Amino acid sequence: MPENPATSDDAVLEVRDLAKSYPVRQGLVLKRTTGHVQAVDGVSLALRRGRTLGLVGESGSGKSTLARVLVGIEKPTRGQVLVDGEDVSTMSRGARRELRRNVQMVFQDPYTSLNPRMSVGEIVAEPYRIHPDAVPRTGRRKAVAELLALVGLDPDHVHRYPHQFSGGQRQRIGIARALAVKPRVLVCDEPVSALDVSVQGQVINLLEDLQDELGLSYLFIAHDLAVVQHIADEVAVMYLGRVVEEGDRPAVYKCAHHPYTRALLSAVPVPDPAARSAGTELLLEGDPPSPADPPSGCRFHTRCWLARRLAAEQGLAGDGPDDVPERCRTEDPVLVPLGRGDGARGAAVPHAAACHFAHRAAAFDGRPAAVVPEDAGPDVGPDIEPDIEPDAGLDAGLDADFDPEATLDPATGRAVLRPTRPDHVTETVPDPAVLESRER
Q1: What whole-number distance in Å separates Cα of residue 385 and Cα of residue 380?
Q2: Were 11 and a residue from 33, 46, 195, 382 both cysteine, which residue would form a disulfide, CB within 3.0 to 4.6 Å?
Q3: What pLDDT is stored for residue 216 in this prediction?
Q4: How far apart are CA 395 and CA 270, in angstroms?
């Protein structure tokens, strides 16, 4: 595992070797524990002050479980959670309660995360009942009105109930509630996935404005890679409870080294079919394995397109999940800093990937690659020069689609939707390549 560059001086939230498992029990009366579901297994991440860390991956990869552990809803099975360098597990109950004010959560579903029997004013003021020292009782009504105005809602609507608001407005209420106790970190668990595409951009831009105004740090969890590309400064990719690739946003999006990351990027829709080169689509077959019984070796080898190609080059017969190079089936890869040519030298967060053949994945361009002998040693590392420059293997269409600057308005720094007719007004949305609907 590479040493994380974030230190206690610049990391507001840090996790070290974090694991969370759930027991599997059988029996109606005497429930015996027959195994464990390893939802999170050995994750180490650091969130720096005033920055956004994007966490992506398929459903079941452990993203939401990690978020629940970070905010104290779940207790970790192993590992440490540090806030401002202090280990949460070693604190007293009172100190942990006080520390939780600094880490708040914005939930995915704005319909179920708000109590339908409470008015908006009561929902936003609820944190003040839990932390009465946050705002004096006499000033809470004014504080609620200021929070509603801060997130773009009418303060006169404090007596309305959640069902009287739209989905985007409900999510703004959830954000206001999270900001009530003035946290330093917001854990956003897919905050825009349940919203219309025309509203997603408004919420994303609101979060960016709040970050600039209040100096917040975000752990932003999402399925939509286009949204993460727009808002995140660093990106971590999770698969089956582990981080398989991490680094600065340009390094991950323009020069992904893990086969799983390459497949996720390949699955992003492109409006112009001609923009994607033929033969570069990477499809993942089947569903992720059960976290109760993960595969041996590399956890991704049962679905890895690169392992299949390497097996064919080595003359291995068949196309089953275990017809892959022996190294993929037996050796568990760890995050290793990438060698020369990865485009991440000098970056604040080093680019790292957990793959035995990381440079081969980065060099893939749809054509058969040269055979690499099995005894050639590790395929990643600071002293190994890849046969093909990783950047050279990226097709022009993919490279252009994920250019962070290509989707930003130079005047405002926001993502914009280009007008389709001269009389259309430019609107803010996360990414023009994916979110094409206009705000009604």
Answers
A1: 9
A2: 46
A3: 96
A4: 13
Residue 164: name the closest of 177, 152, 173 by CA: 173
- Written as six digits, the tokens of 117 are 């029997």
Query: What integer is the mean pLDDT of 201-206?
Result: 93
What is the amino acid identity at position 11? Answer: A
Confidence of residue 319 (pLDDT cuts 50, 70, 90): low
Strands 32-48 and 52-56 come out as unpaired
Nearest in space to 338 (alpha carbons), one of 319, 317, 357? 357
| Location of structure tokens 């946050």 | 134
Lowest mean pLDDT among 141-150, 264-273, 419-428: 419-428
Say what the alpha-carbon torsion angle 314, 315, 321, 324 is, to the nearest 10 degrees: -20
Q: What is the pLDDT of residue 50?
A: 93
Query: What is the set of domains in the chain, with CATH numbers?
Result: 11-232 (3.40.50.300), 254-401 (no CATH)
Sheet holding 32-48, edge to edge: 32-48, 11-26, 78-83, 86-87
pTM: 0.78
Q: What is the DSSP string of 393-413?
A: GS-HHHHHHT-GGGGB-TTT-
